[in-house]
Design goal:
Layout: H1 2-11, H2 15-33, E1 42-46, H3 53-60, H4 74-82, E2 87-95, E3 99-106, E4 111-115, E5 118-122, E6 128-132, E7 140-142, E8 146-148, E9 156-157, H5 160-175, E10 182-185, E11 190-195, E12 198-202, H6 204-212, H7 215-225, E13 231-235, E14 241-244
Parallel strand pairs: 1-3, 4-7, 7-10, 12-13
Antiparallel strand pairs: 2-3, 4-5, 5-6, 8-9, 10-11, 11-12, 13-14
Helix pairs in contact: 5-6
Length: about 250
Amino acid sequence: MKEEHNRKRKKRINPFVGMFLILLTIIGVVIFSRSSFFTVQHFEIEGNAYYTDDEILLMGGCETGKNLFWEVDTKKIRSRLQQDAYMENVKVSRRLPDTVKITLTERKQTAAIAYGDKYVVIDAAGTVLRKAGVDPKIPVLKGLTISKLSVGEPVEVEEKVLFRQCLEMVSVMEKNGMYFKSIVISKTDAKAYILDSLYCVGTPETIMTAMEDGKLQAVTAALFDREIERGKIQISGDHTISFTPKID
């Protein structure tokens, strides 16, 4: 009888009471989420190399003092940042109670194509990052004719095969501890300038092989040890390397 009486009492509990308690809980959570406890105090930025933290914050329209949940739009911050060609991937997330974290993957500027008296800066895939009016201090590719140019998109050149070879040379250069100020390429050969008056001549294939074998680095180091900064390093088809102080 007692158990039956308890069951009847439970049945008589108003279902609206439970709904009211849930509603009160939701209202409490909303009020708490709007409190100063969740005011943004910090921005954490990871992965940036080309841009500084302050530049990233300015580009993203990021401001402290806003509510983490109600006044910070992570999608808008991400969208603003991804408008820049250097941004390959952007993630923006909230970290309780007062921090917004921005994680970036930047495209690395690898080379520049001479374009009149300006330079078109590109990454390893040929994506245009920016146009520059001064030497960007990366390998400059010469002898190419640009047919389509749009920031954030792959550059198009008329000499597609030569362009691919240039990018391959830059990639091998980076992997093997060499640096070329510029690369002048044609259908017959390539000139890779180590200094303004010191360069190596050969086909793209022989120059890359000489770097991969370490021979070009050894010759260059020997010349620098003797304080020779002018001349031509000739790489023949059989991978023989010779040097003459005369330049063309």
